[in-house]
């Protein structure tokens, strides 16, 4: 669409200059009109560029009243021809500045015909530019399908051109992916949308999906310029999902084209992915899960793995505190790592996302993923070749341990190889002899807890972890400080002569408590 600013720039060629209303120059024009008679007509629609000489008006007051009426019709600009008025009254200029109504002065020798011709030329230029954008967008969408880049890439491509919030749901109205501009964070936007749909789940039963647009409009009332439209993604055989566009302004040809091409791209992608669903749990993933679950023989070599699987030297585990975001998170992680880690396998296992890859993923890519989600932690295993199936299991245990440490240290990205004391504790945990020794040492505490329904083991662990602070231990266990003191007296009775603050005793009991977890 042509804005007042763009049109005014072209009109400078005829010495048609802006004299008021600079703040209203970004308004888009819908039409040009010549109005010479002082008539109040419903035919004057919004966002019009009105040209006049005011020749039929008998006084300045009449002109002022008519300009104020034009403001009620929400016109975009007013152009006054000087063939009648040698000088535009200051009162009119004041109104233009006060109400941000652009007012232009047309020299007496310039005809309306030249202005109309300039506007039509500008429309043609805009049309050519728009057509180029539409063609480029369509080409990008076709490339995304050919290269199998997925729904997230398709939605991001559409968003890049129309710069409006976009949602893509599956047929059950679960969010697959979203795109937003910088004014709204993606995870915040997703959670607000999910909340709006959950709070009105009864309205959405029996496939009354037309209610979605109204629900989202109501949820985003503060962003009053947002109007949502829902478009089904379906063919004659099945319904795959819904594309939802959050319009910020009036629809235009580029947006209409984005919807048309976007729907086609999403449909083709959905049909392709449907045909591949039965292969998602392929042989490698099934074997990986059997190893993780302890169903495979840990001593066997990786003969059953594909050639590439043997070279997947590093494991990444993404832990989601909000399990509702796992499916969307999987899609986003897959797309984020698509160009950076070509040789990889990514899947969802027990509400967490696991990635095995042959190359180390850049820290920036991992940080990009974490920045887009709240409450997500990434644990990273050692980088080592998989000679035995046991190597896969070790990597899984390493990322699990990394996640545990990350939670305690309140960090979001942690490498197993960079762990300190915790790493050696993990290695010791794999040794049965070390575990048995720890159980023998802590047997008095364990038996007392079983017989008395006490929590001496938990208390001693908290007390040591907080470096002998009664206050911090009480806060951590949500009990009174005196309760901690009483429990410590019982512990000292069971371990007479043991000074837990002595370095070797502190390390011995700390390690033993960790080993029996």
From TrEMBL:
<feature type="domain" description="PucR C-terminal helix-turn-helix">
    <location>
        <begin position="456"/>
        <end position="512"/>
    </location>
</feature>
<dbReference type="InterPro" id="IPR025736">
    <property type="entry name" value="PucR_C-HTH_dom"/>
</dbReference>
<dbReference type="InterPro" id="IPR051448">
    <property type="entry name" value="CdaR-like_regulators"/>
</dbReference>
<protein>
    <submittedName>
        <fullName>PucR family transcriptional regulator ligand-binding domain-containing protein</fullName>
    </submittedName>
</protein>
<dbReference type="InterPro" id="IPR012914">
    <property type="entry name" value="PucR_dom"/>
</dbReference>
<dbReference type="Pfam" id="PF13556">
    <property type="entry name" value="HTH_30"/>
</dbReference>
<feature type="domain" description="Purine catabolism PurC-like">
    <location>
        <begin position="15"/>
        <end position="120"/>
    </location>
</feature>
<dbReference type="InterPro" id="IPR042070">
    <property type="entry name" value="PucR_C-HTH_sf"/>
</dbReference>
<dbReference type="Pfam" id="PF07905">
    <property type="entry name" value="PucR"/>
</dbReference>
